[in-house]
Structure formats: structure tokens, C-alpha cells
Amino acid sequence: MSAHKYPRHRQVTLALSGASGAPYALALLGRLLAAGMQVHLLVSSAARVVLATEEGEQWPGKPDALAALLSERYQAAPEQLQVYGKEEWFSPVASGSGAPRRMVICPCSMGTVASIASGASDNLIERAADVVIKEKGQLILVPRESPFSALHLENLLKLANLGVTIMPASPGFYHQPRTIADLVDFMVARILDHLDVDQELVPRWGYGQKKQPGA
């Protein structure tokens, strides 16, 4: 299946920026590809530093080499994973006529939040987000910062008022996690739910929970 034959509802843009949270991004990428989604992947320079620090990952700088590496790792179908450079302005994600209607930035740095909120569009991640907002698509930001400053909150509120979904990387504990992977899966499951991608990573509230003593 060639890239343009994936219908819009089976496409998603996934961007990694320079916040902590590389395990979330890797798990989400794997789940999206396993679900048969075509993923348009964008990776910032700072995200590469985070990947190396948190996961020991040294990703190649050239998009074609990275696409080949990750396609083999996740057993993606031909052309299912599309990778673009940070200034690849002729890529589909740079235009409303070609970009997927859905985009996730995971993890999302507060610098990226600020740039999107100001409409800067200085790199492809910012431009792709700007496109999704202007086309009234679905943009999900997964910030990982603590504490939030008043400036952070103002920028997040500005984007939320534009219809952007703000989903901080704050995993819950009601599914009784035992490992770091369980915590990662909690957030990945919530993102997939919002993208309307089927998942069975975490039991839904009211289904599969243990009853409270005396209930």
C-alpha cells in the first residue's frame, strides 16, 4: 500500500520534542503501527538527546535511515512509517491539503507549547501543529513538566481554548501498576482512546477493577 492510499482516518502525525518521556513515545509508536495506522514521524534535535539519555537510543539523523530502522524494529508495512526532517517543508504534514487530521506531540516540551501557542511555525513540528489547528483537526499534546509556571499554564490554556487536547503525562494508579511499563501503558492507552484506536492495555473504569473490601 503506497503512502497516499492510506485513508485520512488511518493516518496520524506523531512528533517527539525535547521533554522527558521517551518511553511513552516509543510505546505509542509501536502501538500505532501495530494497529495498522500510517504514522508520519517528526523528531526534534532535543528529542534525540532525550532518547539517548533515557533509552540509550542513538537514532540516525537521516529520515530514510531512521524510517528503515524503526520499520524493521516494529515490523511496519512498506511505507507505513514516514519520517521527515525538521525543515522538510514539502512533506504532507506541512500543508492542510495533505496533512493527517490527527496529531500527537509526545512528549511535548514547554518550549514547543509556547511556539505553537504563538503560531511561530519555525520548524516542521510547529508547522504541522499549526496546520492541524487551522484545519480544525485533532491535536493532542502530552507535556511532561513539573511544576508548571504561570506562563506554561497560560500557553496551555490558550491552546485548550482553541480545541487542543492537553494530556499531561500523569499516569493513574487505579489499575494497580507493578512496573514502569504499566505506568507507560496507562498513558499510551489514554492517547489511543482519544485517537479512537482500539486498545486493551488498561482495563476501563468499572470493568476489571477489584471490588473494595466490604463492597
TrEMBL record:
Q: What class of enzyme is it?
A: transferase
**Where along the chain is dimethylallyl phosphate bound?**
Y174, R190
- Which InterPro entries does this entry report, sorted A to Z? Flavin_trans-like (IPR036551), Flavoprotein (IPR003382), UbiX-like (IPR004507)
Q: What is its EC number?
A: 2.5.1.129
Keywords assigned? Flavoprotein, FMN, Prenyltransferase, Transferase
The residues that the entry says bind FMN are G18, A19, S20, S44, S109, M110, G111, T112, R144
Q: What does this protein do?
A: Flavin prenyltransferase that catalyzes the synthesis of the prenylated FMN cofactor (prenyl-FMN) for 4-hydroxy-3-polyprenylbenzoic acid decarboxylase UbiD. The prenyltransferase is metal-independent and links a dimethylallyl moiety from dimethylallyl monophosphate (DMAP) to the flavin N5 and C6 atoms of FMN.
Q: What is this protein called?
A: Flavin prenyltransferase UbiX
Name of the encoding gene: ubiX
